[in-house]
Amino acid sequence: MKTITHWMDGKPVDSTSGRFGPVYDPATGAQEKRVALATPGEVDAAVASALQAYGSWGTSSLARRAAVLFAYRELLDAHRDEIAALITAEHGKVHSDALGEVARGMEIVELACGIPQQLKGELSTQVSTRVDVSAIRQPLGVVAGITPFNFPAMVPMWMFPLAVACGNTFVLKPSERDPSACFRLAELAAEAGLPDGVLNVVQGDRTAVDRLLEHPDVAAVSFVGSTPVARHVHRKASEHGKRVQALGGAKNHMLVLPDADLDFAADQAVNAAYGSAGERCMAVSVVVAVGGIGDALVARIADRARRLRIGPGTDPASEMGPLITREHRDKVASCVSSAAEQGAEVVVDGTGYTVDGHPDGFFLGVSLLDRVPVTADAYREEIFGPVLCVVRAETYEEGVALINASPFGNGAAVFTRDGGAARRFQLEVQAGMVGVNVPIPVPVGYHSFGGWKDSLFGEHHVYGKDGVAFYTRGKVVTTRWPDPADRGIDLGFPSNT
Asked: Using CA of residue 63, residue 449, residue 440, residue 171, what is the dihedral sign?
């Protein structure tokens, strides 16, 4: 059985822990590989490698960093099908979806290629007589990323390309459920010319995570995952004096107003709710139908949902693949039955779905729940699976109030033809990312990704300007070149004259 191990000092490093976790093919349910689970000592070795590399990489020229990243971008482009195949094999998402993930990750690599522009400083001359002031940004040192299973290539690429472009070195701890994509990303980075130790991948579970959070040589931690873990990461890393950005869970709402194109809204609701089997932090999990459109909208969504083709991610005919593990599949299925017990109407029940020829795969059909009480677990909790809830609201105001009452604030969308209503929504809704007739408003690479409330812990979003700010710290330099007129003792507070 193939073992996926660590990447340190520019090469694979076998684990000495003796601990391994299973890596499954979700379409078959078979364990195809195993992944090493690092000890604290192995994490320390990865950090030590990064710290040693920082001595030279942190002072390397912007031109050199950009050249490596340009070469890396070209290698990613050449190997995108290979990376997507690794994602499908271990996560289960269909190949086209995996290709989209790689493409969106490459957007951040492309952003990082322009790091000379991103790190341009500021200069004010003659702020006082013969005095100039400049502002510069410098790297932090060794930084770490802890990434989730649902985007095993894209989310790491949200982090390390920009971090190393800024002059930091990086220790990446990917999900132990689908670790091969990250390992391949590190191999390609080395092939592109990234020096040994600048990017290290340490495989592992909570033992590895907690060691990174407390390690004295790690200056900052980036995290994407569930809200409970994000809260833990933020608290523990902050206690150890680190800068932290921790992105948590979501319950993204899609508000559909009475004037909306219902066929278009139904198409987009299905796409956003069931793509990648709902295992997206920006998936639409709640549709809020306003006024009298609820029955017509639900009928349109149900018709489309029943016709979705579910199967292995390697089958070009499949529109949705399996879930990541058997345990998660069963947990998501239980949310449908509990919703019915708590007052929801089950319009489409996908819990008994099977795929011919794959009896042991982690497949689940799509489910649609209507008239879901806001007290039901299916409404309150992040399901992270192919379950779409529909709630009814009489007015726009009632719908927005319902959305804003959620403890999550990752994304929200409004579907309408009314520009005034759309403008009002984008100002009034309490979410970090807002779509107008766009159900999954994931920002492009040169903007930043992040939510509000329990969807984000820390001050910085990821990538874009926030990413550069997170991976650097500012320094202000005041300079004077005196002439004889400036000599003499003056104990007064300096003034800008």
From this structure: positive
Q: Report the chain's C-alpha Rg in angstroms.
A: 25
pLDDT of 173-231, one tens digit each?
A: 999 999 999 999 999 999 999 999 999 999 999 999 999 999 999 999 999 999 999 99
CA dihedral 442, 285, 470, 466 (to 10 degrees): 40
Distance CA 310, CA 155 (A): 25
Amino acid at 165: A
As a whole number of angstroms, the distance between CA 29 and CA 358 comes to 8
Centroid of chain to Cα 252:
15
The yes-or-no answer on residue 281 being catalytic is yes
Please state at what angle helix 206-214 crosses helix 227-239, rounded to 10 degrees. 30
Measured over the CA atoms of residue 337, residue 267, residue 427 and residue 107, the dihedral's sign is positive
Look at the alpha carbons of 352, 356, 362, 363 in this order and tell me if their dihedral is positive or negative: negative
The per-residue pLDDT for range 422-478, each reduced to its tens digit, is 999 999 999 999 999 999 999 999 999 999 999 999 989 999 999 999 999 999 999
How far apart, in whole angstroms, are the C-alpha atoms of residue 287 and residue 296? 13
The secondary structure element, H or E, covering residue 33 is strand 30-36
Instruction: With beta carbons less than 8 A apart as the criterion, state whether 135 and 475 touch.
Output: yes
Q: Which of 113, 166, 182, 281 is catalytic?
A: 281
Tell me which amino acid residue 176 is. Answer: E
Query: Which long-range CB contacts under 8 A does 20-24 form with residues at least 24 apart?
Result: 21/176, 21/205, 23/90, 23/176, 23/177, 23/178, 23/179, 23/180, 24/90, 24/177, 24/325, 24/362
This prediction has a pTM of 0.95
